[in-house]
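re: that complex we talked abt at group meeting.

here r the seqs, copy pasted straight from the sheet so there may be weird spacing, ignore it
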Amino acid sequence: MNLTPILTPLILGAGAIVVLLADLLAGKGNKTVAQVVALAVIVFAGIATVAVWGRGGPAFYGQVSGDGFASFFNLIFLLVAFLVVLTSPSYLKRSGSNYGEYYVLLLLAVLGMTFMASGTDLLIIFLGLETMSISLYVLVGFHKQRPRSNEAALKYLLLGAFFTGFLLYGIALVYGSTGSTNLEAIADYVKAASTPLGGYMGIGLALLLIGLIFKIAIVPFHFWSPDVYDGAPTPVTAFMSTAVKAAAFAAAMRIFYHPAMTLGIPWDKALWVLAVLTITVGNLAALSQSSIKRMLAYSSITHAGYLLVGFIARNELGASGMLYYLFSYGFMNVGAFTIAYLVNRRGDGSYSLSDYAQLGARNPVLALLMSIFMLSLTGIPPLAGFFGKFYVFSAAVQAGYVWLVIIGVLNSVISVFYYLRVMVIMYMREAEDLKDLERVPSVGFAALVCGLAIVLLGLFSGSLLEVARNSILTIL
Amino acid sequence: MNLEFLSQIPLLLTIVYCVAVVAFVFLFVLFSNWLERKISAHIQDRLGPMETGGWHGWSQAIADALKLLFKEDIIPAAADNKLFRLAPYLVFVGSLAGFAVLPFGAQLIGSDLNIGMYYVIAISSLVVIGILMAGWASNNKWALYGAMRAAAQMVSYEVPVALSLLVPVIMSGTMSMQEIVHNQEGYFWNWYVFRMFPFSFVAFIIYFWASLAEVNRNPFDLPEAESELVAGYFTEYSGMRFAIFFLAEYGNMFVVSAIAATVFLGGWQAPFPFLKFIPGAVWFIGKAMSLVFVQMWLRWTLPRLRVDQLMHVCWKIFLPFSFANLMLVGLWAVLWGK
Amino acid sequence: MESVFFVILAVVTVFSALMVILQKNPMTSVLFLILAFFSTAALYVLLSAPFLAAVQIIVYAGAIMVLFLFVIMLLNLNRIKEEGSPLLKALGMMVAGMLLVIAAVVIRSTVIPSDSGFVAGTEPGFGSVEAIGRSLFTTYLLPFEIASFLLLAAIIGAVVLAKKKL
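got the structure back, here u go
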C-alpha cells in the first residue's frame, strides 16, 4: 500500500489523537502541553510534507494524489495552522475557554483540508470538506461565554449544512450522469461519451461549484462571512480566512481545471460576474467598517474575488499565481489578525479602529508590522501582496479578461483607503488614554514571522512562483 | 394430512404465517399478563388473581382485555387528533415487524433475510417514533416527559444492544438468523453464550440488560414510571388504544427475549441432540419465555434508576465494555478462528 | 410485480416529500419526512440493496428523526406564523419559477447515453453485507477511514459545545 500521498494527513490524524491523550494526561489547567504537542505535530507533518514533496503519485484506487499541488497546499495549511496554534493560547486564556480540544479540532480541520487538496475523487473531497467544516463549526463557537461566538457558530453551521446539501446533490448528479465519483473516470467518461453531456452533469457541476465557493465566501454566498468572522475567536478567524479559502480553492482547481469538466459551458462568464461582484461588494463594505475585525473580514471577501480572477484565467500563470497568492495571503492575514488581537486592549471583542491611535509611538515594532501587513494587503510593491495580485491579474490579461482586470485594479485603488486608514490612525491620530499593550512573546513572534515572510516572499517572489509552477503541472 | 402443496403458493403461506404470528402475539400477551400478575403476587408473598375463571384466576387477562375493548375511547380535546390515533398503531407495527425474522423453527420463519439481525435493530427505531408521537400528540406534560425519556433511553441503549449483537455475528460470520441458529447445532455447549468464553457471555449479559431499557422495563422503566409520570407516554390513552400499546409493549418483551434466545441460546436447537424429537418451536418459545420470566422477576425485585444513572450506566459502563468485548471477539476470531 | 411496487413506493415517496414542505404543522411534516425515508428504504430493497435499506432506516428514520423531533419539541410551535413581505414572496416565487424552467429545459435536453453501463443488482451477492464490507475495506478504505476522523471531530465538538465545564 502506498501511504506516501496521505503521509501528511496520517501524521495529523495520529497527532490529533496524541494531543487528545497528552491533554488528558497533563491534567486540568495545564494546556501548554496540548499546545506544544500540537505544534510538534504540525512541524513534523510539515517536515514530512517537504520530504515527500510531489512524490506521492496517485494511490488508493486513484482516490488521492500526493502530487506537488497537494504538497504545496498542505504546506500552506500547515504554516497557517502553525501560526494560529502559536497565537491561540493567550486568546483562549482571556476568553476562559482554554481547552486542549481546540488544538485537536484544529488538527482535524487541517486533516480535512489536506484531503480536499489531495483528493482526486469527489467522495474524498467531500469527506475532507466535511471534516474541515465540522471542526470549524465547533471552533467558531469555541468562545462559549460570548453570545456572538455562539451566534456565529450557529449561523455557520446552518448555512454550512445547507450548502453541503448543494455540494452533495451536485456530486450525486455528476455520479448519476457519469457513473463514477473519480475525477479521472468522470473525465474519461465525458471524453468517450457519444453525445455531449450537459444537462444533469452541468447542473451537478454548478452545484458543486456553489458548494465550494460558499466556503470561500464569494458573493452572493458571502452573507455569513462577516458575522462568522466577527464572532469567531480571532485565531480561528485568521485560520478561516486563509486556510479554509485555500482548501476550497484547491478542491475547485482540482475539479474544474480538468479539461473535460468544462462540458462546453461558459463557466468563465458566470464566474466573471461573481468575481466583479465579490471584489466590489467586499471593498465597498470594508470602507465603512469601524471594527478592524469586520474590516478584515470584508477585505478577505475582496481577496477571494482577486483569487477568483486567477481562477477564471485558467492558465498556467493564473494557477501558479493563485498558489503564490494563497501562500503569501496566509501570512498577511494571519499577521493582521494577530495584531488586531494584540491591540484589542479592552478584550471585549469590539476591535475598534480607534484602539490603534498612536500605536506608532506606543509600540513601534507592532505598528511597523501592521503597516507591512496593510501595505501588503493593499498590494504595494515590493511586498508579497503585490506580486500575488500582479500574477493573477497578468494571467487574466493573458487569457483576455482585460475588463475584469481593470475593475480589479480600480477596486485595489479603492481598497487603499481603508488599509491606509489603519496606518493613518496608528501614526497620526492622538490617543485619548494611553495604555500598555499586553506582551505575549509567542504572539509577537508569530507576527514577526509573518512580517518577515511577507518581505522575503516579496523579494524572492520568482522562486516561490517557480515552485508553484512546478506544483500545478499535474492539474492543468 | 399432507400440507406440502402449501409451499407451492408462497403468498398464501406467508399470509397464514402472518396471521399465526399475530395470533401468537395476542395469546402471548394474554398469558404473560396473567403471568406477570402471578409473579408479582408471589414475589410479594400474596396470591394475585384467584377468582376469575377458576384455577388460579387463569382468565383474568381475558377479562381485562374485554374490559379494555368495551371501555370508552377518550381523545383529549387539546390532543393532536390524527397523531394521537396513529401513534399506537405505529408502535404496534414496530413491535410486530420484529417477528418477521424470528426463527420459530427450522422452517418457521417469516423471512430469513441475509441482514436479519440488522433489520431487527433498524425496525426497533420505528417504536421510538411512535412513542414520541404518542407523547407529543397527547398534549400532556407527563406524556411528553415519558416520551422524551423513552426516546433518549432507547436511542442510547440501541448502541450497546447493537454492539453486543455483533458478537454472535462475528462468531457465525452471517447476519441471517437461521444461519446463526444452524451454527449452534449440537450439544448446548455449542450455543454461542458458552463459546468464546467469557466474551460471548459478557455480550449476552450486556444485551439482556440493555434490552430491558429498549423495552422500557424495570429497572429502566423511567418512561412510564407510574409514581412520577402517571403512566408516561400513554397517560392519556384509554380503551382500545391503550390495549394496543399494551400489546406492543409485551410483544417487544418477547421480541428482545427471542433475539437473545436465537443468537445466544441456540434458538430452536435442542440442548441435547437426543431431544430433537421435540419440535424446535417449543424450544424456541421455551427459551424466550424463560428470559421473559427473568424480565418479570427483575421488575418486581429491583428499584428504578434515576435518569442520570440510566445514562451513566449506558454510556460509561455498557458502551465501553461492549466495545472492548467486540474488539476482543474480533481479535479472537482473527487469531484462532471462529 | 416489481414495477407495481415501484410505482406505489415512488408515489408514496414523492407525495410524502411534497407534504413535508406543504404541511403547516412542523410535527406533521417531520412525520412525512420519516415516511419519505421509509419509502426510500423500501425502494432500496427493490434495487436488491437490503443492507442499504436498513442503513437508511437506522440512520435517517431512526437517529436523525429523533433529533428532529427533539428540536421541534423544544421549539415553540404555536408561535410560528407566516412572515415575510409580499415582495419577498413574489421574488421567491419568481426565482423558483425560473429554476423550474431551467430544470425543465435541462431535463428535456439531457440525453442519457445508451452506452451508460450501470444497471443495479446484476451480479450475485450484490448489495449483500459481504459485498459492502469487502468494498468498504478495499476500494473505499480511505473514505471509510476519513469518515472515522470526521466522526471523531464531531464527537469532540459535541462534547466541547455541550459540556458546561470541561
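couple things i noticed - DSSP finds eleven helices and no strands in chain B. Chains B and A do not touch (no CB pair under 8 Å).
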